[in-house]
Amino acid sequence: MPNPVDFTIRAATENDVPTILALIKDLAEYEHLSHEVEATEEDIHRSLFADRPVAEVLIGEHAGTAVSYALFFYNFSTFLCKPGIYLEDLYVKPAYRNNGFGRRMLAHIARLAKERNCARFEWSVLDWNEPAIRTYDRLNARPMKEWILYRLTGKALDQLAQEG
């Protein structure tokens, strides 16, 4: 059983790019979505460490080994006129689950949100991921059932982008 005292959270660096890609692939496998992963190390580097990064990553380490990651970025509320943080991914390797590491990652991001004057901290969860849903319910997070997520990708995105 991993000792929770040996768990630390830090901002990812450029040296973490291969680790981030490996963790993304682990998450995709867990979510049965490995076939959708197109990310490369170059993509990750460009997205996280270029002149205008579009996202941030935190690495959770147990005794110096990367065992989790969280990828997040800003969104914006026009009604509140404040930024928010949107958590795209939170993943903890199976051998390290049930030790509070995921919750500690969430608490770390919540602190960042408060420090950065964000009004919201939001994320999505797959409807079959009961362990995650139970965790989020225990945090008093509430599902936004009145909102439906829409997405354009591939041909549909190309077609709309070509409209004049």
Helix content: 25-40%
User: How large, in whole angstroms, is the Cα Rg?
Assistant: 17 Å
What integer is the average pLDDT?
A: 96
Which range does the strand content fall in? Answer: 15-25%
User: How many discrete structural domains?
Assistant: 1
Structural commentary:
The chain has 164 residues and is α+β, with helices and mostly antiparallel strands. The protein has a single domain, classed as Gcn5-related N-acetyltransferase (GNAT) (Aminopeptidase, 3-Layer(aba) Sandwich), CATH 3.40.630. Helices cover 34% and strands 24% of the residues. The protein is built from five helices and five strands; from the N terminus they run βααβββαβαα. It has a five-stranded mixed β-sheet, sandwiched between helices. α1 packs across α2. The chain is globular.
Record the SSE blueprint.
Elements: E1 7-11, H1 17-30, H2 41-49, E2 56-62, E3 65-77, E4 82-92, H3 101-115, E5 120-123, H4 130-138, H5 154-161
Parallel strand pairs: 4-5
Antiparallel strand pairs: 1-2, 2-3, 3-4
Helix pairs in contact: 1-2
Short characterization:
The chain is an alpha+beta fold and 164 residues long. It has helices at 17-30, 41-49, 101-115, 130-138, 154-161, and strands at 7-11, 56-62, 65-77, 82-92, 120-123. Strand 2 and strand 3 form a beta hairpin.
Observed structural traits:
164 residues; Aminopeptidase; five-stranded mixed beta sheet; 5 helices; 34% helix
